[in-house]
Design brief:
388 residues, Heat Shock Protein 90, 6-stranded mixed β-sheet, two-stranded antiparallel sheet, 10 helices, 8 strands, 66% helix
Length: 388
């Protein structure tokens, strides 16, 4: 068995606590929070109930932001969206509890930027509109319409800038991931074609050794036997040595042919390992049996496409930390399985990808099975009969 690992994950411009956008957000939060917190420590700000609620909202927004960064790294989209909504609530509490600090509303700009990374564009727009309506109510009640209107317009402009920045960053990440996926597919296909060519060369070489060299060595042995019958006693010893050497050479040729035949077929190891993109999460591991080979290129392509689709589905939908790709051989043929440690509790609704897997395998006499593991996560298993 061979094993290897490469990391992979779905990208986001906010998907790490140390991502550039997150680092900028930390600096912004410190700049916003420094004034009220120092005023509270120096008692220039009275610690009444409303102020404490505002400070609690300010601190909660940072903690939720950090938690969202870690969750985004895990690929759990539903939890990321809940954390963004909770940040909006915490930021609004900070605006209400610390009204004299007009900079509290900047927290909502951070929330708006995250929403365009976490939600579809239309839902992010609706969320930003709802946040701004609530912000308008709070600021108008506190400052009056004349003073609140310029601030609201400036906040809306900054939100639009942040939303566009996040949107373009997200599209750049998606384009990069698409290019990486295409590159991985091309590398895997190239490895498959190279291995197929090497397999054909091994097969041709074994046939040539067996049919040509083996045939001529057998003819040589017969000629040596005929010569030995008519040879003198002195010549017979030399002919016996020649016959022995020809026997040994023929045995060596047969051994080489057997060795080439043992490695007959297409090796999928390099092609499968080329599918794993180099991203932080989840970790992709391999357990590939040395004798798990297929005899034809269409069989190898079918298993490769199944592994690619299964890996893509795990990265997009499973919110998992690790994926194991296993390739084994049994009496019936080759078995390819893809296991993830996600939280799936039921089999997925089959779309075009899974249906395409089944059709591709069925055309070659194979089958596809999808099961939910007791500890959570999915196992996809493809079986393909292989004849030598």
């Amino acid at each position: 068995m061979t094993s290897s690992s490469q990391p992979a994950a779905v990208s986001s411009p906010w998907n790490s606590p140390t991502a550039p956008l997150n680092l900028a957000a930390y600096v912004t939060w410190v700049a916003i929070a420094a004034g009220p917190l120092l005023d509270l420590v120096d008692t220039r700000l009275q610690p009444d109930a409303r102020t404490l609620v505002g400070v609690a909202g300010l601190i909660a927004q940072l903690l939720l932001f950090l938690r969202r960064a870690m969750t985004d790294l895990q690929g759990d989209e539903a939890r990321v969206r809940r954390l963004v909504l909770l940040q909006a609530v915490a930021a609004l509490l900070a605006v209400w509890g610390l009204p004299r600090s007009g900079s509290m509303a900047v927290l909502l700009i951070l929330v708006s930027a995250q929403s365009f990374a976490a939600f579809p564009t239309r839902r992010a727009l609706l969320l930003t509109l709802a946040i701004n309506l609530l912000l308008a109510v709070l600021l108008i009640a506190e400052w009056g319409l004349a003073s609140a209107l310029p601030a609201l317009l400036s906040y809306a402009g900054f939100q639009a800038f942040a939303a566009l920045t996040t949107t373009y960053a997200r599209r750049a990440e998606q384009a990069r991931d698409a290019i990486r996926a295409v590159n991985a597919e091309l590398l895997a296909t190239r490895q498959l074609l190279l291995e197929s060519a090497r397999g054909e060369e091994r097969l041709a070489l074994s046939r040539e050794l067996h049919d040509v060299a083996g045939h001529k060595l057998t003819a040589l042995k017969l000629q040596l036997r005929m010569l030995a019958l008519a040879a003198s006693p002195e010549q017979r010893d030399a002919l016996k040595d020649c016959a022995r050497l020809s026997d040994e050479l023929l045995a060596d040729v047969r051994c080489v042919v057997d060795t080439l035949r043992q490695h007959d077929g297409i090796d999928l190891h390099a092609a499968l390992q080329a599918l794993a993109p180099a991203l932080p999460r989840p970790l992709v591991r391999f357990a590939l049996a040395a004798d798990a080979r297929v005899s034809r290129l269409d069989q190898a392509q079918a298993l490769l496409r199944v592994a690619q689709e299964a890996l893509t589905n795990a990265l997009r939908h499973a919110a998992c930390g690790a994926v194991l790709i296993r390739l084994d051989r049994d009496d019936g043929g080759v078995v390819l399985s893809v296991d993830d440690d996600g939280r799936a509790t039921s089999a997925p609704i089959e779309g075009n990808g899974l249906r395409g897997m089944r059709e591709r395998l069925a055309a070659l006499g194979g089958a596809l099975a999808i099961t939910v593991k007791p500890e959570g996560g999915l196992r996809l298993e493809a079986r393909l009969p292989v004849s030598r």
